[in-house]
Amino acid sequence: MAGSSSAQTWLTPEAHERLRAELAGLLRAEAADSGPEDPDRYVEARHRRARIRHLRDLVHHAVVGEDPPDDGIAEPGMVLTVRYDDDGTTETFLLGLGDDAGSADLEVYSPHSPLGLALGGARRGERRSYRVPSGGTVRVTLLDAAPYGRHRERAAEFAEG
């Protein structure tokens, strides 16, 4: 990814730590690289530097583990439950960064994905639609939007008792 966005990105503490560790590893590899001697190493070094720039921007501008307001509005850092209107199935997922796989029990959808873009700013009970790559339209209803921290607390209570 070229350039820097300088936009804030919501991350779980676990994802933030994973990204910091990845950045540290890439920086060590960069420092140890004596310079590309062949075209493959040159390309690898360019990709590594681009990833370093991206991670630095991401880690620097991250909002880490800070829950958004518990106002029922879909935004990054919220665990959303939606109903797919065509077949009635429901799905619960974290609206966050793709690197945010901080919870094994929860899928993570990017706010920039078609579903994430459609749901951004939606309130409980609101219907939204989005187009899929095949050209079809998917209609969803937002059933619930709860901060990630509240979801984790509920999951811990359920596991205990």
UniProtKB/TrEMBL annotation:
Keyword Protein biosynthesis included in the entry's annotation: yes
Gene Ontology process terms (BP): regulation of DNA-templated transcription elongation
UniProt keyword list: Elongation factor, Protein biosynthesis
Domain Transcription elongation factor GreA/GreB C-terminal: 73-144
Highest taxon listed in the record's lineage: Bacteria
GO-annotated molecular function: DNA binding; RNA polymerase binding; translation elongation factor activity
Keyword Protein biosynthesis included in the entry's annotation: yes
SUPFAM superfamilies linked: FKBP-like
Name listed for the protein in its UniProt record: Transcription elongation factor, GreA/GreB family
Organism for this UniProt entry: Amycolatopsis australiensis
Taxonomy of the source species: Bacteria, Bacillati, Actinomycetota, Actinomycetes, Pseudonocardiales
